[in-house]
Every structure is written in structure tokens, then in C-alpha cells.
Specification:
The structure holds 2 protein chains of 2 kinds. By secondary structure, chain A is an alpha+beta fold. Chain A is built from 5 helices and 4 strands, in the order H-E-E-H-H-H-E-E-H. In chain A, strands 1-2 form a two-stranded antiparallel ribbon. Chain A has a two-stranded antiparallel sheet with strand order 3-4. In chain A, a hairpin with a 5-residue loop joins strand 1 and strand 2. In chain A, helix 4 packs across helix 5. The longest helix of chain A is centred in the N-terminal third of the chain and has 28 residues. Chain B is mainly α. In chain B, helix 2 packs parallel to helix 4. The longest helix of chain B has about 45 residues. The two termini of chain B are about 25 Å apart. Classes of the chains: A alpha+beta, B mainly alpha.
Chain lengths: ~230, ~500
């Protein structure tokens, strides 16, 4: 191989080919996705295939919803702790794996679910369970309490788990006048409970992280991925 | 046998050629030595991180009180220390050295190369500290925070340009297969890195375009950076040590172009079943399966080049490692093509099987070949021999056994994990607990690798500093019978 311009062109176009095919093309296809209503309405106009043109349903909320406040800060904590290395955030379609059967989500996730995320955390490991719908599985105050105990030490609510404790996100402090409302409520006789006169309270980071986890839920349909009853 | 083949890099008997190579070696000595020292230092640091991670995987309370030692961060510190510290530094040493030799072009202005190397390692050190203190990006293979990456990119450009310069000022008409691989990799890596940084970190692309870019990048670090460099090293060393040319020039051309065309599409198989358009995944699967062509072609070419000379392979420290790596390349790549099939991926995806596969590629293939490269290069750079053949054998056996145990444990354990995870009847916690014995076996394999790395580092620094006794030794250090005997 002595023809060097040819060698160099080959080297260049080999990578240019996949860069165009995979990156630029998906950028064109996915980059133009927008929020949408759960279902679309047909209009009287017909497109070039003779099918009715579909438009957003008037007055309906748009999905995926904008992420808000404390949950957004919690995502930063999720990122800085490297949670992604054991937890994915994607639900595979029915019949491919057991994601839906395990209750990890009511439907498969699709590209549109992620369009408002500044950093997409799909993940490629499931040393722990998928979290795309965690907030749907553990909701409200009960879900909040469960997640705090689980983060403080997973063994409290999930004995035998290999998840590391994140106790450094909590303060153990002496109860002064009256117990804090935010203090963790341990199960009776828990070996992880603080000694008498002490309480465990979440730091700001722990609170944000739990709000983020609770915000992860797939409770809406998309036209291309409806939740089937 | 064509004229091309005869001009290959194999044993140079003429005094004039030896003298010229010796001058080239002298021109790159200080820079290459720096890169090897840096690489081995990172190898040891990365090994400490690896042991921590391995134990944490089955003892979650181990060292868990310190935030900076939490699993996700140490694991990423390990990955970056190995990929950018060990692997890339050793590529800069061995790759540039082979390039200079094959181009018969001494390295000029080596001061700039040296300084760029220092800054590469400063950038990496800052990056690893950043990961541990919590500035990790949580983008796989791109964990280093954004305040350190521009320094890495600029240092890389200054290092990589030296390979291109050597190529530009080469003497002679012939371009050997190793030169294609090195030239291509030096060009591909910065392109991949800059695109991934821009589209994921600096100006995030919309939604899962980030994930597509992420796996296009991450898989290509292996496919278009580590793999070509290791193949170039194997193509250079096998004929050199055995004193006969590579079996077929045409197979090496076919192998190179097939890799160049197919490998860079393959990374999308990491997203099988994920929320991205199906046509993208299908393209990734097709490319992954097509990788069988370059892999088999290179495998045949390497095998036919060593056939009949197994005793020499076994006696040479260099080739013992290189051939282990070359065999691993064939195995890991064929397993990788199989893993890209949807039915297999359904089981192996998201499990420890993938972790085993990654170590099969980066360690059993790439790292073992690079160990071989260091065993060949150092005596020529230092004009000294390796002090201890015992330490070389210890290095080989500890690493060969260690990595084999790791791959088997993670892939068998991962397969079981995948089957159980796909059966919703089995509670998730039970799936987790069933992986623990396999993860413990992985920790044991880590101890083997640690022993190997310490033996390697000890031999290296002994050679570097205890010059007097070593220099007096006659002939190369060989393994097996008539050690220290006849020089080839």
C-alpha cells in the first residue's frame, strides 16, 4: 500500500461514514422531537399518503413534563455519586427481557421520553434494578421514608443488598429540645438506628436526591408508546 | 512472496540498519522512558482502585464511610486510570517508537513531546481527583470533569502529531501494516474524543443522541484506539522476534480495511432494547457481525506467521505475551460479535458478562500485547537486559491465570444473572445474591493480577536503576531452557 493519499482518504472516510450515519443522522431524527400530548387528534387535512394529518390535542398537558426544582438538584447528586454505574433508566419493550413484568415501568421508554434531559442517564448496568419508574413504585411520604432509609443503609429495608450505604449524606445529631420532623423513622429494634437521644436527619443533598428519585416515573402515554390498560 | 513482504520489519542483520535503528532509539529514549514510567505508575494506581471496587462489589460496607471512596467514583477512577493512564501512555511509548523505527525517522524536538507527555499526565491526575471529589460526569468512558479535558485534548494533539511527523518524513518507499494502524489510530482517537466531548458535555445534544454518541465513542476507544495499536505492535514484533516475515501481505490489507470500515459502526450494540430508533441498533448489529471478517483474517495471518515456531514463542518473553494477546483478540472479538445478536444481548446486557467482556478485550488482548511490547522495547532503549527471568515468568503466569479466572467468573456469573433477571418469578434481591460468589472469584483474580503487576514493575525499576550488575549480563533474557544463552 504505497498510495498515501488513498490510504489517508480511506482512514478519513471510514470514520466519517459512521459519524454521518450514526451521529448526524440520529441528530436529525431525534433532535427534532418535541413535547406532545398523550394522544393526537386527526384533522380533515390529508398528508401525501392520504392519511389524516395529526395534531396535538387542544388543552391537554404536554409530555414529557419539564423537570422541576429540588429534583433537578437531586439529579446532580445522582450524577456525582455515580449511581448510573449500577442503575439503568430505560424500560425495554414487553417480551424483551422482563422489565415490564418486574414492574420497572408500565410501558417501554422511547426517545421522546428523554428530550428535556440535559444529561441522559440511560445506563448499561443493572447490578441494581432499573430506576426509570422508581417514583411510581415508591410514591408519596411512604416512598420518601423508604428511600431515605434505603440510602442511609440499604440493609435496613433491603437485607442482603449489595448497594453501598450513603450514610455520609445524613447527619447523626443529638436531639436537643424536640426531635426533628425530618428525622428518619427506623423500624423497631433496628440495629442501624442511632443510640437513644440521637437522630438521623437528611442533609440538603439527601433530600434533593430523594426528590429526584421520586420524580422518576412513567405515568403518561405518548402517541408512539401508549400505556396499555 | 512479494517484494513488499521481504522489506518487512523482520530481523535486521545488516550493521548499517542496526546502527540506524540504534540512532532512532536514542532519539526517542527520554520521551519513551517517561511514557513507560508513567504508564506503569498508572497501572499500579489503577490496580489499587480495581481491588477496592472488586471488594466493594460483594462487601458493600467496605470503606463506605468516605464519600470519595463510594463505588461509582472509585470504579470510574479505575477505568480512567487504566484507559488514559496505563493504556494511552503505553501506546504513546510503544506506538511512537514503532512508528519512528518503521519510518526510519529519528524524533526531532523531543523536548516538546516530553512536555506534552507531562501535561497529559497532569491533566489526567487532575481528572482523577475531580472524579473522586464528585465532579464526575457520569457519562461512561468520559467521566473526567470538564475542567481537565481541554488539557488532555491539547496534550494529546502535541503527542499525536509526532507520530504523523515521523510518517511525513519517513525514508524508503514501503509502508508496513503497523504504520497504517498507528497512523489511523492517531487520527481517529482525537476525532472521537472531541466529538464526544462537544456533543455530550459542552453542548449537550438532544435526548438520546447523547447516548448514541456516547457508545459510538466508548466502543471506538477500544476499536479504533486500543485495538489498532495492539495489532500494530503484534504485527511488528512477531516477525522481528521470529526472524521471518508476516504470512500474507494481502490478508493484512484486508484485515486493516475491514476493521476500519466495520468497527466504528458497532458500538450501538450497547443500546440494544434501548429507547433509540431500531434502524440504528440494526446497523450496529450488522457491523458487529461483520467484524468477524477482520478478526478471522488477522487471526489466520498471525497464526500462520508463528506456525511451527512455538518453542521460540514460548522462550521469548515478548512473544509469550503477544501471542496470548493475539489469541485473546480472536476469542474476545468472536464473543463480542455474538453478544451483539439480539437474542444473546437480551441475556448479557446489563450484567457482569459485559464487564468480563470488557476486561477480555482491554486486558487479555490489549494489555498483554503491550506487556510484550515493553519487554521488547526496553532492552533496545536502555541497552540493558531484563534482570530477572523469574519475575517475567511470574508476571506472565499471574496475569494469564488472573485474567482467565476473571473472564470465566464474570461471564458465567453474568450469564446466570441475565437468565435470572429475565425471569420475573425470581425476586431481584435473589438475582443480586446469586452473583456474589462470582464477584468474590473476581476479587481473587484481582489478587493474581496485582502480583503480576508488582513483578512487572519490580523488574522494570530494577532494570532502570540497578544498572551495573544488569549491564554486564551477556545476551538477551529468555525464558525456559538455556536462559541467558545464545543471542539471536
Amino acid at each position: 500500500m504505497k498510495n498515501l493519499p488513498l490510504l489517508f482518504c480511506g482512514i478519513f472516510f471510514a470514520l466519517a461514514f459512521s459519524f454521518t450515519g450514526l451521529i448526524l443522522t440520529s441528530h436529525i431524527q431525534i433532535g427534532s422531537l418535541t413535547q406532545t400530548t398523550e394522544t393526537l387528534e386527526a384533522t380533515d387535512d390529508l398528508d401525501e399518503n392520504g392519511m389524516p394529518v395529526m395534531v396535538l390535542a387542544e388543552g391537554e398537558p404536554l409530555y414529557p413534563a419539564m423537570p422541576v426544582g429540588l429534583a433537578q438538584q437531586g439529579k446532580e447528586v445522582y450524577i456525582s455519586m455515580g449511581c448510573i454505574y449500577c442503575h439503568s433508566q430505560q424500560v425495554r419493550r414487553n417480551e424483551f427481557g422482563a422489565d415490564i413484568e418486574r414492574g420497572w415501568g408500565p410501558r417501554q421508554t422511547v426517545a421522546r421520553d428523554y428530550i428535556l434531559q440535559e444529561r441522559v442517564l440511560l445506563g448499561t448496568m443493572r447490578t441494581g434494578p432499573d430506576l426509570a419508574h422508581l417514583g411510581g413504585r415508591y410514591a408519596g411520604d411512604a416512598g420518601r421514608d423508604w428511600n431515605h432509609l434505603h440510602l442511609y443503609n440499604p440493609q435496613i429495608v433491603s437485607k442482603g443488598s449489595t448497594m453501598p450505604p450513603f450514610a455520609f449524606l445524613y447527619d447523626v445529631r443529638q436531639i436537643t429540645s424536640k426531635p426533628s420532623e425530618e428525622a428518619l423513622t427506623f423500624p423497631p429494634n433496628s440495629e442501624y438506628a442511632p443510640e437513644a437521644g440521637y437522630e438521623v436527619v437528611p442533609t440538603r443533598r439527601a433530600k434533593a436526591l430523594v426528590e429526584y428519585l421520586l420524580s422518576l416515573k412513567i405515568n403518561y402515554s405518548l402517541p408512539e408508546a401508549p400505556i396499555l390498560e | 512472496m512479494s517484494a513488499d513482504q521481504k522489506q518487512g520489519p523482520y530481523s535486521s542483520n545488516s550493521e548499517a540498519v542496526r546502527l540506524e535503528l540504534s540512532q532512532i532509539d536514542a532519539s526517542i529514549r527520554s520521551a519513551a522512558l517517561f511514557f513507560v514510567i508513567a504508564a506503569i505508575t498508572w497501572l499500579l494506581i489503577g490496580t489499587v482502585f480495581a481491588l477496592l471496587v472488586a471488594v466493594k462489589a460483594h462487601q458493600p460496607n467496605f470503606a463506605s464511610t468516605f464519600e470519595f471512596l463510594t463505588f461509582g467514583r472509585v470504579r470510574s477512577a479505575h477505568l480512567n486510570a487504566m484507559a488514559l493512564g496505563w493504556a494511552s501512555n503505553i501506546i504513546f511509548a510503544v506506538g511512537l517508537w514503532i512508528m519512528a523505527r518503521l519510518c526510519r525517522a529519528p524524533i526531532n524536538h523531543k523536548g516538546i513531546l516530553f512536555i506534552a507527555g507531562v501535561f497529559w499526565n497532569i491533566g489526567l491526575t487532575v481528572g482523577i481527583f475531580g472524579i473522586l471529589r464528585g465532579d464526575i460526569t457520569s457519562v461512561e468512558w468520559l467521566e473526567i470533569p470538564k475542567y481537565a479535558t481541554p488539557l488532555l485534548a491539547i496534550s494529546y494533539a502535541l503527542i499525536g502529531v509526532w507520530g504523523v511527523m515521523a510518517f511525513r518524513f519517513r525514508k524508503g518507499d514501503h509502508v508496513y501494516v503497523s504504520q497504517w494502524y498507528i497512523l489511523a489510530a492517531l487520527f481517529w482517537f482525537p476525532w472521537l474524543y472531541v466529538v464526544a466531548q462537544v456533543m455530550i458535555i459542552w453542548f449537550p445534544a438532544r435526548g438520546v443522541v447523547q447516548s448514541v454518541t456516547n457508545w459510538w465513542f466508548a466502543h471506538n476507544v477500544l476499536g479504533l484506539w486500543f485495538t489498532p495499536m495492539a495489532l500494530a505492535t503484534a504485527y511488528y514484533l512477531i516477525p522481528k522476534v521470529l526472524g521471518r516475515p508476516i504470512y500474507s501481505y494481502y490478508l493484512s490489507v484486508l484485515g486493516f480495511w475491514a476493521l476500519a470500515i466495520f468497527y466504528n459502526w458497532a458500538g450501538i450494540h450497547h443500546l440494544i432494547g434501548g429507547p433509540i430508533p431500531v434502524w440504528l441498533i440494526s446497523a450496529g448489529i450488522v457491523a458487529s457481525v461483520m467484524m468477524v471478517i477482520p478478526v478471522v483474517v488477522v487471526g489466520i495471518n498471525h497464526h500462520m506467521s508463528v506456525v511451527g515456531l512455538y518453542k521460540e514463542v514460548w522462550r521469548s518473553p515478548t512473544l509469550r505475551f503477544v501471542v496470548f494477546g493475539a489469541i485473546s483478540y480472536t476469542l474476545v472479538s468472536l464473543i463480542g460479535s455474538a453478544m451483539a445478536l439480539r437474542t444473546v444481548s437480551e441475556i448479557t446486557h446489563f450484567t457482569h458478562f459485559t464487564v468480563g467482556h470488557a476486561h477480555h478485550g482491554v486486558y487479555a488482548f490489549f494489555t498483554m500485547i503491550m506487556f510484550g511490547g515493553v519487554y521488547y522495547m526496553m532492552p533496545r532503549l536502555l541497552k540493558r537486559e531484563w534482570p530477572s527471568s523469574f519475575l517475567i515468568k511470574l508476571h506472565f503466569w499471574a496475569c494469564a491465570l488472573g485474567i482467565t479466572i476473571m473472564i470465566v467468573a464474570l461471564q458465567v456469573g453474568g450469564w446466570i444473572q441475565g437468565l435470572e433477571m429475565n425471569n420475573a418469578e425470581i425476586p431481584f434481591l435473589e438475582v443480586v445474591q446469586n452473583t456474589i460468589p462470582w464477584l468474590k472469584a473476581r476479587s481473587v483474580s484481582g489478587l493474581f493480577l496485582t502480583v503480576g503487576h508488582i513483578a512487572f514493575a519490580a523488574n522494570f525499576f530494577w532494570m532502570l536503576f540497578a544498572a551495573g550488575a544488569v549491564r554486564a549480563k551477556q545476551g538477551p533474557t529468555l525464558l525456559g531452557s538455556n536462559e541467558g544463552g545464545s543471542a539471536r
